[in-house]
Amino acid sequence: MRGTYVLLARMPQNTQLEVGRLGILKFEEGLYAYVGSALSGIKNRVERHLKSEKKMHWHIDYFLTEAQVVNVIYGESEQRKECKIAKNLAKSFPSVRGFGSSDCSCKSHLFFSKNGNMEEEVIRCFKKVGMRPLRW
């Protein structure tokens, strides 16, 4: 199963984290949506993100040391669609500049909602790019 996924994760309190080469970033309490691709396998990638013990490799690894994943939305595809979904989410939510987008031209792949209402918009974004969204 290959495709694109969005981790919905709650940051329980305002915090600062060192995030690899991005340095120290401030994160507000609230809900975040992280858009990623897994053309080598969604199951393995998401399961890796859900582990508490892992090597810090991606920006999201640092973020998840403090935030808790509350849901995962994913869709199957042989093509990379993460940037299209990220660009659609950017129309509705503020983002964390440079987060998760060091290998593309997107402003970010991490989006924030203070009120915690993101899931419906994430699902709409999957549908906009021609994907069938599924819940983990």
UniProtKB/TrEMBL annotation:
InterPro entries: DUF123, GIY-YIG_endonuc. Transmembrane segments: none annotated. Residues 19-114 form the GIY-YIG domain. Pfam families: DUF123. This is GIY-YIG domain-containing protein. It comes from candidate division MSBL1 archaeon SCGC-AAA261F19.
